[in-house]
Design brief:
The protein is about 20% helix and about 50% strand. By secondary structure, the protein is of the alpha+beta class. This is GDP-mannose pyrophosphatase.
Length: about 190
């Protein structure tokens, strides 16, 4: 394997909380030129596609919540992470996020893929799961999820929501694309 074109000379944490860490790395390129990288480190996360197949069609459960960083409310698939480091049980994480945010439990959970989220600036792995054979229970929202609501929509409505601005989350869009490619290959 070829040597990476950038090596880390030094690294220091400039900010940290229970969800993330920001570090500045002094780097050196193969031509000897040094530079600075700012990196946001976050523990692994999951995104879950809750899919219900019925005689009336296919339905998805989305969550709607306010996203402070972009000052807007949007629909997206249930997703999130637990602050447990790289060794988190990602299936337990997926089941937990689904239950917390929607109250749903999955009789069948299939891992479809794992992606890097915004790897130009952040180091976080996002595991994509398909949840089927759903049963409804109670939600268990965290304080950071204040105001979050769950909504059952048809697949057709969800796809309209992508183009009318109600769904703008890149992780939701990527997960849906992964599901579509995966389902074609079945």
């Amino acid at each position: 394997m070829e040597a990476p074109p950038i090596k880390t000379i030094s690294s220091r944490t400039v900010y940290q909380n229970k969800w993330s860490r920001v570090r500045e790395d002094v780097i050196e390129r193969t031509d000897g030129v040094r530079g600075l990288y700012g990196v946001l480190d976050k523990d692994p996360a999951c995104i879950v596609i809750p899919l219900e197949r019925t005689a009336d069609g296919d339905f998805l459960t989305l969550v709607h919540q306010y996203r402070y960083c972009v000052e807007g409310s949007f629909y997206e698939f249930p997703q999130g992470g637990w602050e447990q480091g790289e060794d988190v049980d990602v299936e337990a994480l997926a089941r937990g996020e689904l239950r917390e945010e929607t109250g749903l439990s999955a009789g069948k959970l299939t891992k479809l893929h794992a992606n890097w989220i915004a790897y130009g600036a952040m180091r976080q792995r996002h595991h994509v799961w398909l949840a089927e054979e759903l049963t409804q229970g109670e939600t268990a929202l965290e304080a950071e999820e204040h105001g979050l609501t769950a909504h059952r929509v048809s697949v057709e409505e969800f796809e309209r929501m992508i183009f009318d601005g109600r769904v703008e989350d890149n992780c939701t869009l990527a997960a849906w694309g992964i599901y579509l490619v995966w389902s074609r290959g079945r």
